[in-house]
Amino acid sequence: MNSAIPTFGEAIHDAVLANGFAMVPDALTPAEIKALQRAVAQVGDTVAARKRDGVYALRNLLEVSSEVRSLCETPTIRNLVEPILGKNCIPVRGILFDKIPDANWKVPFHQDVTIAVREKIETEGFGSWSIKAGILHTQPPASVLEAMLSVRLHLDDCHEHNGAMRVVPGSHRLGRIAESAIDFIRMQRGEQVCNTAAGGALLMRPLLLHASSPAELPGHRRVIHVDFAAQALPGGLHWR
Fold this sequence. Notes:
Layout: H1 8-19, E1 21-24, H2 30-42, E2 50-51, E3 55-58, H3 61-64, H4 66-71, H5 75-85, E4 90-97, E5 107-110, E6 115-116, E7 127-132, E8 135-139, H6 142-146, E9 148-154, E10 165-167, H7 182-189, E11 192-193, E12 201-204, E13 210-212, E14 223-229
Antiparallel strand pairs: 1-12, 2-3, 3-4, 4-14, 5-13, 6-8, 7-8, 9-12, 9-14, 10-11, 10-13
Helix pairs in contact: 1-5
């Protein structure tokens, strides 16, 4: 075996390190896609679901879907996350997004700067406490976000015409970015559209600048977004 050829895990690690994201086609099997489609349909009656002719946003997916929780512990997902965060990483938040005709929105370029926690404990570096869909969130220091990884699992084809993610490669290395500087950084570094077929995964650092446009032909664009972390929080705080 030629040791110069990078392994699957090494290739993912290097891409995330350099660019802040990695695209993995066929991360899910057709059977896993169908099982997850059924699972997210079943959570539509939960209180935390935001609905317009179907579920389009859910912020406590790990709590209401045993199927999603179980998936996070399978080799399918662990083989994506562990090369970057190590074997001690755990899922700390799950979100479901969908873009349908009655819920078809634009998301401007931004960084993901909040985390979900169990209870409010005043801790140095943590602030901007808020409640989103009944779940307590806070903005942690950049060092916490830099040690996390988000995995976006696509249950439908996601391309530039139905709201695919757009990212600014390498922007995750710039720390917390002031809103006034976002346009300059995007123009300086350029952006990439992350076209992803159903079953594909997009791995990204939370501080990567990213955006999505409204779908031109909105149908389902179901994405399961799971945040992973490998570090405990300080000051008595706990991941939700």
